[in-house]
């Protein structure tokens, strides 16, 4: 192994370690007021090291946003492709409504809101495209659980969009009120309609 390879592997390991640590810090404190110096002190590093490993503060933010998206998308890993949208919706809502995920979901909401505030075409911002990309991510995952003949139809597209809208709307209400029963009842009502539709669809 060359000296360069050793340095690269050490740097990658340290980068992963600091990404985990900074992600934990951001989950607790949010994005607002994120400053490199107090962040670096909190995770046992320095601003110089963070800038070296992530290129810039924006580079660190992009890495953290990617980590946040990955954590959310893993929730469906255990489901078979033929699970169907109603079952997928139940698994997603159970995960979204779990109290231990509240910090992650508040972080997602803050990032989503910041992304919506970016000017179109402002690709220099680390927040640029985050909101749009999360919609695309989830649409693709939901599509994987629809019958193949329905995925590309207007009805199939609308079905996925509506499920995503119901889940996100219920999540916003849950974060605002803490009333899991009310939000969960709304989601359950929509999923019953999905069940009925799947039984009657040709």
Automatic annotation (TrEMBL):
DNA-binding span(s): 35-54
PROSITE patterns tied to this protein: HTH_TETR_2
A GO molecular function held by the record: transcription cis-regulatory region binding
Pfam family, one: TetR_N
Ranges for domain HTH tetR-type: 12-72
Keyword terms, alphabetized: DNA-binding, Transcription, Transcription regulation
Keyword DNA-binding: yes
Entry annotated with the keyword Glycoprotein: no
InterPro entries: Homeodomain-like_sf, HTH-type_TetR-like_transc_reg, HTH_TetR
Protein name in the entry: AcrR family transcriptional regulator
Organism of derivation: Actinomycetospora corticicola
